[in-house]
Amino acid sequence: MMSCDRMENDGMRYIDGEMTPAQAAEFEKHLAGCETCRRSIAELGRVDSLAGRMRIGDPMDVFWEGYWKSIYKRGERRTAWILIVAGAAATALFGIFEIGRNFGPVTFVKVAAAVLAAGFALLLVSVVRERVHQKKTDKYRDIIR
Fold first, then answer.
1. Cα→Cα distances 23→11, 13, 48, 54, Å
2. Domain regions of the chain by residue span
3. I need a surface site. Which of 31, 73, 74, 144 has the fewest CB within 10 A?
């Protein structure tokens, strides 16, 4: 007769069906002669059955589902982007105004400020154009999150 430490090594493999037919037959022979292992297999089978029926929700899914339903989703990011764009535009306009008011001789700082303003303007146009294109072509736009 085999020792009962087989249960520790092979019990879950047997319950989960991970044994070959030959291994399962050999383990069943052992179970026929060992009351301790038979009881352990019965208990593990009940636990496995209960665990298989359990459905645990992902906490992140619950969080995001609540987040997307909240009022903040509508305004929070849009407001942040509006403020960022308005601040960048105001800064660029002020810079252009100051350069135009006190133009004087062309200096490195004036050229750098003009290049920086042009870069921000180009980036802004690019982002807005990408968002508009994405909104038009998004195949998931009708899915409620």
1. 12, 10, 20, 29
2. 6-53, 71-137
3. 144
